[in-house]
């Protein structure tokens, strides 16, 4: 048991790193032709700049996420931007082997001292909640802009708006009063997971939460804009408004479906085909855009995070 306690996290870190690189290698070997074909489209003179822009937006995307985590972590202790960014990438690597990226906090808390890591996991979950909530809210409203008859149900524009507004209010309330969730945890058998921490030790202020929500909104626009660029230059003839609606709907469905990050790419492809069918267009550009965006936004940063993870000191 002592050996496991001493080396358990080291084994876990190496398992995550190897799993990330093996999966990326398998994906590239299975999808090599599709990637080559897609890169052929993006290598055209008029598209190279856009591909560079998408890559630059990826850096901005994760930079904003690092800023969000730094703001949250600083409630517990002083954490610099570089340290925060490296721990965010490490968290992305861990999430590759966890359902719906629930393992991100395991990588992020490596930026904290041992005494703050349990509290840091709660802070990480609270900070990340904003992104999920915004994705769901945008998805709710996007349904109102889909042509009647394209979905199995038709609630009508105003009905969708009213239902979306109600659900949005509930989600925003949960986000700003997430401390109540922690209080409920304290009253259950899960209280042992808190290590006896008091609520005041991890509660985030409303100003910080508002800033976090704003940064999450900017980040959401960035990766939605990336998707629109990718779909557009992949050959879709949809109007820009429909492209944004399609991108928002894809992210919404992806968030709602329980999955492992390792299976994320296959689910993205399936969802892309479904959404392309809603707009009655060729699914090819959607699949190409989804695959390359996964490679740029998830796979490459996760690979970097895997390297960071194995070089970090153990959590315990």
What does this protein structure show overall?
The chain is an all-alpha fold. The chain has one domain (2-311). Helix content is 73%, strand content 0%. The protein contains twelve helices and no strands. α3 (45-73) crosses α6 (117-142), α6 (117-142) crosses α10 and α10 (240-256) packs across α11.
Percent strand: under 5%
**With helices defined by DSSP (H or I, 4 residues minimum), what is the helix count?**
12
Termini separation: 14 Å
Mean pLDDT: 77
Write the H/E string, N to C. HHHHHHHHHHHH
Task: Estimate percent helicity.
Answer: over 70%
The structural domain count equals 1
Count of strand segments: 0
Task: Name some characteristics of this structure.
316 residues; mainly alpha; disordered N terminus
Topology:
Elements: H1 2-30, H2 32-42, H3 45-73, H4 81-95, H5 104-108, H6 117-142, H7 157-176, H8 178-186, H9 206-233, H10 240-256, H11 264-278, H12 284-311
Helix pairs in contact: 1-12, 3-4, 3-6, 3-9, 4-12, 6-7, 6-9, 6-10, 7-8, 9-10, 9-12, 10-11, 11-12
Question: Care to give the gist of this entry?
Answer:
This protein is mostly helical and 316 residues long. The chain is built from twelve helices and no strands.
């Amino acid at each position: 048991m002592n050996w496991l306690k001493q080396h358990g996290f080291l084994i876990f870190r190496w398992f995550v790193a190897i799993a990330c690189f093996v999966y990326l290698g398998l994906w590239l070997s299975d999808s090599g032709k599709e990637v080559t074909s897609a890169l052929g489209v993006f290598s055209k003179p008029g598209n190279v700049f856009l591909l560079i822009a998408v890559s630059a937006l990826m850096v901005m995307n994760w930079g904003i996420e690092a800023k969000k985590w730094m703001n949250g972590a600083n409630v517990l202790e002083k954490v610099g931007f570089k340290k925060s960014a490296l721990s965010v990438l490490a968290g992305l690597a861990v999430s590759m082997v966890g359902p719906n990226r629930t393992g991100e906090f395991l990588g992020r808390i490596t930026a904290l001292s041992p005494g703050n890591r349990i509290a840091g996991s709660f802070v990480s979950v609270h900070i990340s909640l904003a992104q999920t909530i915004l994705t769901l809210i945008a998805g709710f409203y996007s349904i109102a802009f889909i042509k009647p008859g394209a979905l199995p149900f038709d609630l009508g524009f105003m009905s969708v708006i009213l239902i979306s507004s109600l659900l949005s209010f509930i989600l925003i309330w949960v986000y700003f009063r997430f401390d109540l969730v922690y209080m409920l945890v304290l009253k259950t058998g899960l209280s042992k997971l808190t290590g006896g921490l008091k609520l005041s030790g991890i509660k985030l202020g409303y100003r910080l939460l508002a800033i976090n929500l704003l940064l999450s909104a900017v980040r959401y626009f960035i990766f939605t804009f990336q998707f629109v660029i990718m779909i557009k230059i992949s050959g879709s003839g949809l109007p820009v408004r429909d492209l944004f609606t399609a991108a928002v709907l894809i992210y919404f469905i992806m968030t709602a479906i329980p999955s492992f990050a390792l299976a994320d790419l296959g689910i993205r492809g399936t969802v892309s085909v479904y959404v392309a069918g809603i707009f009655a267009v060729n699914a090819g550009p959607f699949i190409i855009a989804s695959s390359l965006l996964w490679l740029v936004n998830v796979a490459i940063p996760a690979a970097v995070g895997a390297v960071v993870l194995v070089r970090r000191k153990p959590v315990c």
